[in-house]
Task: structure prediction
Amino acid sequence: MRIVIPDDYQNCLRGLDCFAKLAGHEVQIFHDTVKDIDALAARFADADAIVLTRERTRIDAALLDRLPRLRLICQTGKLAGHVDLAACTARGVLVAEGSGAGSATAELSWALALASRRYLVDEANRLQRGLWQGHLGQQLNGQRLGVWSYGRIGRQVAAYGKVFGMKVWVWGRAGSVAAAAGDGFEVAPSREDFFAASDVISLHVRLCPETTGLVTAEDLQRMKASALLVNTSRAELIERGALERALVAGRPGFAAIDVYEEEPLRGRDHPLLKLPNALCTPHIGYVERDNFERYFGIAFDHINQYSAGCLTDVVNPQARVHG
Result:
């Protein structure tokens, strides 16, 4: 089969152990993201299968119309609205997805909280410039950690907070807070209290139409001037532009951000990159070797199953009727 894999930013896929699963297939890998439909159509023109790295590339009906050869899309992780599933089904293109894995995103959330509280990046950079101590940091022990949504990642972050001696409470939907309470965690008495009394808030909500803009400017204004907002989930969970305005106004006083509305960022024009109280990383929460071995290993298994005529684990089996 002819397989195309876009968005290998680190040029790392051929170095994964699981890449050996594609032996015998013709594989082409691109190391950047393009969004122009002509460029995408040219890249995918000869593909029997495409392997997508999370949501980095969008597949819509207009693009599919220019890819008559395409038969299979393998999604690393879960689908998140970037693939037009109905259009795939109508054109006989099967779509297979994987599962979430590991603790990489939770670990990065915690690393960002620690780094922000201790001014770690700035202090390291100061030392490189020949300067000595420049900031008075803040320990996490004894502070209030607010975790919004107690799913797989939120559960891990709450556990980290407990180990570090933080006072952890949770906010979210009824099922989420019930699960947290069942594990012995406090539930915030209200949304208003959650934002007003938390010293650190970490967002772990799944993005969907109902959660877009979930965190409002009013929510952010309630936060302490000393508080930190950590977002390794999705930028669109926060009302567009609200976080930048809030950081300039000083509530919250700090943010640690791994996600952006438009990715990858081009140059240094994003307003968050210009704020001294924002610690920004380039969406690396899930970008970790063990995660990639699992994500791509599942995707490559799906390709081999399809090639052998035994792929059954697809999200749109009805596409077989049109294939």
Q: What stands out?
A: Residues 2-101+289-321 form a domain with the Rossmann fold fold (CATH 3.40.50.720).
